[in-house]
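User: Could you go from structure to sequence for me? I need the amino acid at each position, not a summary. Structure tokens:
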């Protein structure tokens, strides 16, 4: 009875008083101290006085500034980036930015502009990027010319522009990006294009314009980084108009909401009269495709035929020895051999992902591509009971292989013997049947990245990852371990070079303190979405300077002895854990608040206990873990009770001793 009473008195005596201290939120969100602020969608009608004068990046969109003038941003003389998207701006007055000499980017997207003064952009010494998307512009004469000599990108999409004729003195010599997408341009004249003669390596975007005619010679002798004419159905008009021009990249694809039009060999005749390295024809439909369809494609280095309804590529295609990259995603092949890979002997990059039918992997379909370095066959429902040497025959230079999101694959010992130079292997969400006790990866001695997430692996096989002496990045997310724990001896032990490890969503309960002892080079460890407690942190005690993700676990308290381990790490995420905010966890909470700069996800790092503090952010909690007034009272009573008990005990002992003399 007395001991129980004593425990009760001690518990009351050291009871804690807890409270949340809520700091008042800034009106604008600070992204980088004194430099970067987000003030979007706050209903503001002026720049808040709380913004420091040193602000360099200001996101001010979705507020209300119908008029901007030279007093609007006076204080912010260090501005470099200003986003005023959808602020209902109608008027931009003279010298609005006269004090912002460092300003290089102005975004005015979505403002119904009525007036811009001739000197509206006066002030910045090097204004490089200007966005006037969806501002109601119908004529390029509306854009102020003054102080745009350094302009590199001009975005004019989604307006009502019908002519690309610039004012005579508009400076185009430094332009690198000119975007006219989704306007009302139907005709491009030679005179219009002459204004761009001084621009070099220009990326010009006409996507979404229904161009019906281009003056012969309008693009004559002009050179472009990229040209985009997406969504235009009559490709022959475009290709004839581009005669005698040069482009690194030509985008001629169409979009989901556009009508399909059959592409005939005749449409590509104009391609023979221009120089281009890369073409995108996505979502078009080839009619009567044959080897002659590709007659004018011989100079290409890259060809993208995504979603072009292809069932096969014709045999007999000649002259495409220059082609390095071929994209055949989202088509209708039955077998891999139907691409007739031998027609493209110089390919280094091949992508066939998201096929609309189950793709038969075949055997030796790619053996003529001995220079192939990158192969993406993901999302194809490929199934193979014995993978992958027959299928990847004669691909000795392959460095990247993606077989993720396919049907079950059976892997024998040295399943990738045909491609010993693999550096990146992705098998995510593909059920793997390992059919040999040895590792299927044991010959991949230069492999650096291996994604085995959600592969339903037998993680009890300690030899599964043997031979991967240079592996740097391993993803085991979604695989389960025996008894829901990682033991001292495990499949990770051979990976001495590992730097990044993901064990997210593995349903783990615990990790042995020596489980990662051989992994001394790790810099990034993701243990999120498990059921780990604070004790599992001890497994990382030999590591320092790492990124540690422990979000969404079952961590309630972290023992004081483990704070040293956490203090040695660079970044820690403890969000969405049921943290205990009582005095039992006082040492951790104090340390957490002192080291807040180490943590990410602090807005989601909250208390779960006691109920009175549930949902309170951990950095807002203040604990008083001393003796309360009630505790002092009970301490006095308790000591008085002990003193009386001691007196009676001494008196009893003396009487007993006297009686037995």
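Assistant: Here is the amino acid at each position, in order:
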């Amino acid at each position: 009875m007395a001991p129980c009473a004593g425990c009760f008195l001690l518990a009351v005596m050291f009871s804690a008083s807890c409270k949340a201290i809520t700091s008042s939120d800034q009106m604008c969100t600070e992204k980088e101290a004194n430099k970067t602020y987000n003030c979007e969608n706050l209903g503001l009608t002026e720049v808040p006085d709380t913004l420091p004068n040193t602000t360099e990046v200001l996101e001010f969109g979705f507020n209300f500034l119908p008029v901007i003038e030279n007093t609007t941003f006076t204080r912010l003389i260090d501005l470099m980036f200003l986003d005023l998207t959808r602020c209902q701006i109608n008027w931009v007055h003279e010298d609005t930015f006269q004090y912002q000499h460092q300003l290089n980017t102005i975004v005015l997207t979505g403002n119904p502009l009525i007036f811009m003064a001739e000197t509206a952009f006066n002030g910045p010494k090097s204004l490089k990027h200007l966005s006037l998307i969806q501002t109601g512009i119908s004529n390029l004469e509306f854009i102020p010319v003054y102080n745009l000599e350094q302009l590199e990108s001009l975005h004019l999409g989604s307006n009502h522009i019908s002519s690309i004729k610039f004012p005579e003195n508009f400076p185009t010599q430094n332009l690198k990006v000119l975007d006219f997408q989704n306007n009302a341009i139907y005709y491009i004249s030679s005179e219009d294009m002459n204004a761009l003669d001084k621009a070099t390596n220009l990326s010009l975007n006409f996507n979404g314009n229904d161009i019906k005619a281009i003056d012969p010679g309008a693009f004559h002798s002009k050179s472009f980084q990229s040209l985009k004419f997406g969504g235009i159905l009559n490709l022959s008009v475009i290709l004839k108009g581009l005669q005698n021009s040069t482009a690194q990249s030509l985008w001629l694809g169409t979009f989901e909401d556009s009508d399909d039009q059959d592409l005939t060999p005749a449409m590509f005749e104009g391609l023979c009269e221009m120089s281009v390295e890369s073409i995108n024809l996505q979502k078009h439909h080839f009619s009567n495709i044959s080897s002659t369809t590709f007659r004018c494609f011989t100079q290409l280095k890259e060809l993208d035929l995504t979603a072009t309804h292809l069932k096969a590529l014709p045999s007999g295609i000649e002259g495409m020895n220059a082609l390095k990259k071929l994209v055949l995603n989202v088509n209708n092949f039955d077998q891999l051999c139907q691409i007739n890979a031998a027609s493209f002997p110089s390919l280094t990059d091949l992508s066939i992902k998201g096929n609309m039918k189950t793709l038969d992997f075949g055997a030796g379909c790619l053996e003529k591509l001995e220079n192939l370095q990158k192969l993406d066959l993901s999302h194809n429902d490929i199934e193979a009971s014995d993978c992958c040497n027959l299928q990847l025959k004669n691909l000795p230079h392959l460095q990247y292989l993606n077989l993720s999101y396919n049907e079950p694959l059976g892997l024998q010992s040295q399943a990738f013997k045909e491609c010993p130079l693999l550096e990146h292997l992705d098998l995510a969400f593909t059920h793997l049947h390992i059919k040999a006790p040895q590792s299927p990866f044991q010959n991949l001695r230069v492999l650096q990245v291996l994604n085995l997430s959600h592969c339903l692996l037998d993680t009890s096989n300690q030899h599964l990852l043997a031979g991967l002496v240079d592996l740097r990045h391993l993803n085991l997310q979604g695989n389960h371990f025996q008894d829901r724990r990682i033991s001292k001896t495990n499949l990770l032990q051979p990976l001495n070079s590992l730097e990044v490890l993901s064990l997210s969503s593995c349903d783990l309960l615990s990790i042995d303190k020596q489980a990662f002892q051989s992994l001394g080079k790790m810099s990034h460890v993701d243990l999120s979405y498990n059921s780990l407690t604070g004790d599992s942190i001890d497994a990382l005690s030999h590591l320092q300077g790492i990124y540690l993700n422990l979000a969404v676990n079952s961590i309630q308290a972290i023992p004081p002895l483990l704070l040293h381990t956490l203090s040695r790490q660079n970044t820690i995420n403890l969000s969405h854990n049921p943290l205990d905010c009582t005095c039992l966890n006082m040492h951790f909470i104090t340390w957490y608040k002192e080291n807040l700069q180490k943590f990410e996800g602090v807005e989601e790092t909250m208390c779960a206990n006691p109920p009175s503090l549930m949902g309170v952010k951990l950095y807002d909690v203040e604990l008083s873990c001393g003796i309360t007034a009630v505790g002092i009272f009970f301490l006095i009573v308790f000591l008085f009770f002990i003193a009386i008990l001691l007196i009676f005990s001494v008196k009893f002992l003396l009487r007993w001793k006297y009686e037995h003399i």
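One structural detail worth keeping in mind: Residues 1-26 have pLDDT under 50 and may be disordered.
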